[in-house]
Design a protein that fits this description.
Elements lengths: L11 H16 L9 E6 L5 H12 L3 E6 L11 H10 L4 E6 L7 H6 L3 E7 L5 H15 L6 E5 L6 H12 L3 E5 L17 E2 L2 H7 L2 E4 L15 H8 L3 H6 L4 E2 L22 H20 L6
Parallel strand pairs: 1-2, 1-3, 3-4, 5-6, 5-8, 6-7, 8-9
Helix pairs in contact: 1-10, 2-10, 5-6, 5-10
Bound molecules: phosphoric acid mono(formamide)ester.
Amino acid sequence: MRSLISSADLSKEEVLTIYDLFVSLKKGSSYPRLDGDVALLFFEPSTRTRISFEKAAKLLGLRTYTVSSEGSSLVKGESFFDTLKTLEALDFRSVVFRVPFVLFPYESLTKEVSLSLINGGDGTHQHPTQGLIDLFTLLEAYGSLEGLKVLYVGDIAHSRVFRSGLPLLKTFGAEVSVCGPLSLIPSDVKALGVSEIFTHIEEAIHWADAVIWLRLQKERQKEKLIPSERSYFQKFGLTKDRYSKLRGYFLHPGPVNREVDIEGDLIYSEKSLIQQQVRNGLFVRMAVFVWCLEGSPRR
Ligand code: CP
């Protein structure tokens, strides 16, 4: 039984195993049967992650039980660890969680509970299945990432999508740069393996083969880090003029802030891979369930 907390823990061989599962599940008309109970603990809002994990589990024959923060004993002060121990005692096989806090360190957690733990987003730390979605979507669109110049734009500081995608894209040979206001770019990005830090979007777009626009995470900004959403869009958003200069595709993990991250008319345009990302999310999450659970004892 495996867990997936951080994309940085995956070797290239493991990612390729998940990719092969993803490809065969996406092509397939019948799916493997896993059986067992999966708890979906969603303590932060989510549409695509929650529903695609739920659908993925059901297509594989797993039974799902969803718990939200308001309905859980966390509000009465129970710890996350004790919540997991409760689900272990109830014979759950896997727990998919989305939480507002950073789960770090987590190595002891995966040893102390007999559950397959799958991270659906923890604070600003990790969202490994989104990282896999972005990697696999780019592999489908470009064939190979070797030497591909991938640019992340926007709220790098609060982005678990960036932190999850970066190690995966680099493992597959991409060159990764960032662009945004300096107030939203952490000082350690170069140490993480980023090539260039751009503060002018036109220059960054000229550099990039593919661009991942990120969501401006208003809910995570404790202080005012940009003058206004309007000025942010003018300086860093995807406008029609910038769209015409893109030489490749653009992605966005969703949900999109219309007219802040991206001009509304462009979200489902020809150069957009947003719908492919959402669709791939289902098969990535099925592949991750199979990778985590196949061969483990049924409970
Ligand atoms: N990309 C993503 O995590 O979307 P949701 O917040 O809707 O799950």
